[in-house]
Amino acid sequence: MKFDLDLSVQLLRQTPYTLQRMLEGLSEEWTRDGGSRDDWSPYDVIGHLIHGEETDWIARAEIILAQGENKTFVPFDRLAQFEESKGKSLDDLLTEFAHLRSANLERVVGWQLTPEQLDLTGLHPKFGEVTLRQLLATWAIHDLNHIRQIVRFMARKYTDAVGPWKEYLAILQ
Predict the structure, then answer these.
(1) Radius of gyration of the chain, Cα coordinates, nearest whole angstrom
(2) Considering the entire predicted model, what is its pTM?
(3) Cα distance between residue 61 and residue 124, in whole Å
(4) N or C terminus of the chain: which is more exposed, having fewer CB within 10 Å?
(5) Are 90 and 19 in contact (CB under 8 A)?
(6) Cα-based distances in Å from 25 to 49, 64, 95, 166
(7) Tell me: the pLDDT tens digits for 82-121?
């Protein structure tokens, strides 16, 4: 499947709703307990997604679109959520994420990007030259990656409880 901005925006719009429906009203046993810097809980993932909305996707897209002298992206702090989310409830984080995502998508849609603009490049600190098209495709798949991460984290809580059915539950393999 080739990149399609409209299809990507469709997916990106759904993530806050998907996460809110999946997580709202669940106890911290499901959403927070057992999380660490090496094994993120749903709470940690939502904080990470917020940090990305604030400092990554749009900031990098703007660097690419500006086509200024310096097209190098600022390195992204993948662990910033552990400080930035302190003292916030999961509901607070879900609401904040939904607002940020909505504003960011309105911005992207408002740019009315052309195929030529989608081919413009910036410099990733690790990968080198990347296109705006690749950045926006990655944003969408990044969401799916973290939804998967949340579901796996939660499923593992019942690894022992499912007994012999574990053999048939690919999520626990």
Answers:
(1) 18
(2) 0.95
(3) 11
(4) N
(5) no
(6) 20, 40, 13, 26
(7) 999 999 999 999 999 999 999 999 999 999 999 999 999 9
Q: Answer for the pair 132, 145: CB distance below 8 angstroms, yes or no.
A: no
Q: How far apart are the first and last CA of the chain?
A: 28
Instruction: Please tell me the distance from the alpha carbon of residue 110 to that of residue 63, in angstroms, as a whole number.
Output: 16
Q: Which domains does the chain have, with CATH numbers?
A: 5-172 (1.20.120.450)
- Token pair 């997916």: residue: 11
Copy the structure tokens of residue 151. 């579901």
Q: How is 73-100 classified by DSSP, letter by letter?
A: PPPP-TTTHHHHTTT--HHHHHHHHHHH
